[in-house]
Amino acid sequence: MTTDLKPSQQTTPPTNLWSRITVGLSEYRSSVGLFSRNARLYLIGSFLIGINFSVFNLLFNLYLKELGFVESQIGFVNSSRAVGMTLVAIPAAMILSRIRLKPLLLAACVCFAVFSFGQTTIQQMSLLLGVAVLTGMSFAFFRIASGPFYMRNSTRTERTHLFSFSFGMHLLAGIIGSWGAGHLVTVIGERTGDIILGYQYTLLIAIAMGLMALVPFGLVKASLPSSEENRITLNLAQFKRRGTFYFKVTFVNFLIGTGAGLIIPFMNLYFRDRFLLPPDRIGLYFILLSFGMLVGTLCGPLLTRRLGLVRTIVITQLASIPFMMTLAYSYALILVVPAFVIRGGLMNLGVPISTNFGMELSEKKEQGLVNALLSVSWTSSWMVSVAIGGSLIEHYGYTVVLNIASSLYLLSSLSYFWFFGRIEKRNSNGPGWYVPRDIQL
Length: 441
Fold this sequence. Notes:
The structure is a single chain. Helices cover 79% and strands 1% of the residues. It is mainly α. The chain has a single domain, classed as MFS general substrate transporter like domains (Growth Hormone, Chain: A), CATH 1.20.1250.20. Strands 1-2 form a two-stranded antiparallel ribbon. The radius of gyration is 21 Å and the shape is globular.
């Protein structure tokens, strides 16, 4: 362990809520001003890719349902994307540690658009599964590249805000994508008299938006990786020395990913099946979800300053469980919609914090590997749980699946605190927490 998370010291912390909000906003403005040009360009490109991703996240399951696919088949399609991401994660990290990032970003952007187009037009199950695998592979490069890219193009001063801002941009893309997509499907479907055409045209527009990311990615000035970052290796000696850390950081991520994979990809179907809602209404609820997640993400750095990285993650995950139970047992929209939004905000608040924590605990030369392991643990859990979730929903409904997911969230939170809860120390000279140097994991 060679990093030190000790924050900047401040001897006169704000004493009331308004002062804390003012200081927090000022801190955000200052940190955003420190973002490098490369980081800003990557944020813009990720935003455009995020619109494509969010539209597919909202509409694709509903589209497949309209085509006559059942939940188990939809689960296998979603699982196939996770298979692609899992297969390519480690090779992608090794490739990215050896060459310039820019050519791969451009190629991945084109491939992601092409394979997304295939998902929109192919209706034969076997071919659809194959294209879904390729889509997952191409998207994996964006997921794997982001962590090391931000670490390479930021300093410790603004890094936590950069990770949170990046996730916030993804959520903003979700807001815009969900708002436009749900409305477009309804309008195009009414004008053409064919709701399937409404879905297809809307998905094609989203693909075009994703292709626009070629412009900011093309302007990135990426140098070769430094000698410390170069040539990610996997060998027995390395795993003997750092294997315990790798296990801990991936195990907790695998548990939370398994719980999420059981239900999150099917939440659009949840509203369709349980409440018989049309796409534009479902899109509205996903907009609210994205707002809730955006607020949660922006609050993340402020909470970590008071609670620490680990406690923020654990507390917010535990707090989300009662809202999962509301989704499981309630049939009243007036209760379900707020629970849906709040649960999403609480659970996703910790996503960029967890990634940042994993990066900071890593030695510089292994940051790409750790980011890849985090991605593999998440996508491999979805590879299994999404397929299982679809089958369970088809046979037993949503309540059973939501209960299983809640249990996995609880186990993940307790494991996270057990593994990492004693690592952080409170800063005695001011607010905030830090990780001592040379901590043994």
